[in-house]
Amino acid sequence: MKIISLHSVTPALSLDIHPDSTVVMSGRPLFLPEDSGEMVAEGHLAVRISRLGKNISVKFASRYYDAVTLLLRILPASGIPEGMEGVYSALDASSVMGEWCDRDVVTTPFEVTLDGKNYQMEALVSGIETAIHEVSRYMTLKIGDVLLLPVFGVTSPLSPSSHLHASIGASEVIDVKIV
Fold first, then answer.
1. Hey, CA dihedral for 54, 58, 63, 68, is it positive or negative?
2. Is the CB of residue 106 less than 8 Å from the CB of residue 8?
3. pLDDT for the residue numbered 152
């Protein structure tokens, strides 16, 4: 499984590839790094690839994903220090992936809730299909790969002994304890 984090799709594709060890297993707590200072959770919309494909046309990209969820990455509140981007993209157990929802949840405007704050999202179908098309020009997408769409401006401060909840529409997708 590849976890492909997109920074931008247009005008030029910019991405990072994260190892699967960055994701905390379901039901496990999220541990904040020691001596890390103030940390935040940054929200991404995650898309699960359901077919093998390379050079996928935008016209057919909708056939290549079957589910969406939220993925939250922990990052320093002050931003990633220069030159450390690669370290933070590969930091073990630094993200939490939610339960998968049917892809139809993003066909109309939808709401994302993170720790009680609501964020209104636009329908993202065309953005997902463009992302699949652009990434597949450079690498083969395989069943189970995950695309992380560019950050949509959702962050939440983290503190030890707290709980982090996130939902898409009425479906709670993340409920994790912060240690």
1. positive
2. no
3. 67
